[in-house]
């Protein structure tokens, strides 16, 4: 009888062990994300009330660049360091990653860089989780799972999408393959981290994709056409960001000068346009894209401002700007494809991210969590097609490639 129950006892030990570990990871990551979101909200409000502060963006960029040059070391590579450590565990991620990326991102938003927030939350979640490695004397294979749980917890708590966060931590490592051995820890960490953030008083933006049309031959075909556009936008974004970053590193040897130069470009461009529409997170414009028709210029403007900011070395992440680009691009394409602009904006919101991050499953689930189940078939179709057309190289250089089909577009 005991022999027959052995598998159940083994599973129970695994369940209890990883429930405790995931709970600790969630408490750390969820609390860090809450602090970050509160600081981000305050910084954004101050910038909007004092528009002149964007002219100090070059100095803020230089300061953050200097701090990273002086104390950053390996943590400067951000999300890629976490992914590399999961693939080839070497040493615990330095704890300084968390405060450095937190401060760097808040300053970037305070002074008007066009960056996101996912990178910050993921790096804080991974770095804080990894501090448990030595405390719990984890083996390398368990440390991999711990880092994945930290990534899931950070993503889930900053966006309020626990299921998408869980899948993101499983999907982002290797293109075309999921790590099934980490499903329980990632799911628990993501669910609990989201609850921790809510307990701290975090409020996430509520989106609506309007009325969803019935599935017809045309709506399917039109969504696939839009998915191609979303995938190509993701490909161009990733290539442009990487190429600008490479150009800056090649031609500007002193690292702090790179964000200083980028800050000058962003500040002058924003001043010339007379608007802060394309700096910061841009959530109000995303909401607009789901409520009223917008020009294609909005997607192009955010694309240019974000590539410049990230390519120059500002901290934060790419995901929320990708939401902006996708939502406004979908909004602009809707009349041409005879689809509701709110619905196609919602699909673009997740599909450009799916193509750029090579995470179609997490992006589809995110659409379900943010917009409701009715958009599911269109979101899934848009995300998968965008993924297929976005090429091998995404926004995370450390991603490994397993089974992604060849891109429909030749290398740039």
Automatic annotation (TrEMBL):
Membrane-crossing ranges are 20-40, 52-69, 145-170, 215-238, 259-279, 299-324, 336-357, 377-396
Name one matching Pfam family.
Voltage_CLC
Which keywords are on file for this protein? Membrane, Transmembrane, Transmembrane helix
Question: Where is the protein found, in the record's own terms?
Answer: Membrane
**Organism superkingdom:** Bacteria
Q: How does it sit in the membrane?
A: Multi-pass membrane protein
GO function terms (MF aspect) = chloride transmembrane transporter activity
**Subcellular location, principal:** membrane
Assigned GO CC terms: membrane
Checking Gene3D superfamilies in the record gives:
Clc chloride channel (1.10.3080.10)
UniProt cross-references to InterPro entries, sorted A to Z: Cl-channel_core, ClC, ClC-type_chloride_channel
Protein name as it appears in the record: H+/Cl-antiporter ClcA
Give the species this sequence originates from.
Pseudoduganella lurida
Upper taxonomic lineage: Bacteria, Pseudomonadati, Pseudomonadota, Betaproteobacteria, Burkholderiales
